[in-house]
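Bug #2210: token dump truncated for DUF2463 domain-containing protein?
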Amino acid sequence: MNKAINVALAYPDSDPLESKEEVNTLEVSMMQFPISILSMIFPIALYSLSEILIKNGKPLLNIEEDMPLRFLMATPSCLYSGILHFISFNNYRKEQYESQSGFYSLLYFILGTIFLLFSTTSLFSIFMLSIEEWNSKKVFSLVLLPSLVVYTSLLYTSCDLTQAGFRFTTTGTIDMLFDFLIFLCISISIAIIILQKGNDWEIYFSIISVVFALIRLFKQRYFPSMKYEGPTPKWRRIIPIIVLVIGIAIYGILGTLNFLLFHRHFFVNDQ
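Reproduced locally. Full output below:
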């Protein structure tokens, strides 16, 4: 699955259905250049406009109090993440039933469960981030929402999680450097949120990761590199595991925030 997506990304003019592995057309199309970029920068752009458009000392776009605006801001990133991860869950579920190996059947069950949780967390976030006021529009707009797209797009671009692969597929010094810097910046940003430092450094690292991700996507679109197809060293198998751990941290934070918003909206506010 991911291997075929990588082929479609590296060679956008080729037919992804020519791959020997099953490819979902919707998954491939959502990974294409414009959609991932728009989903990534939309919340940042909307937040910037809310800070710029001020009349009589009041923002014309009030993210904290305007529910339709919060819905508009949250939907692209969460929908992008939710749909792609749900398709991955469905594909892993099929591979679980088709696998002849008990080990790989268990592996696909675990991967499917992880991506199902990623998907439901993303889609549920659209609802919760819309109905409840945000405590920190900076963190939501500049860190969490962009990180969903940066993480998701890079996961499917750089990693092959199929039974035949399960490896880090990026080649070329420049691409590997960008992948490393992107995941590093995301990790630092999420770690700062977990540690609750609240000094805006998580925002700086998040913006840096977005900039690197945009450069990476531009390069992949116009100057694609071949994907790694040779014998797989251990470090190429370890990286996807680390990437999944980063994803668990990102969606774990988002899921926790969803729970807190849900509790505040339906229980605390009703008392």
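Output looks complete on our side. The chain has one domain: 2-62+138-268. Marking as cannot-reproduce; reopen if the truncation happens again.
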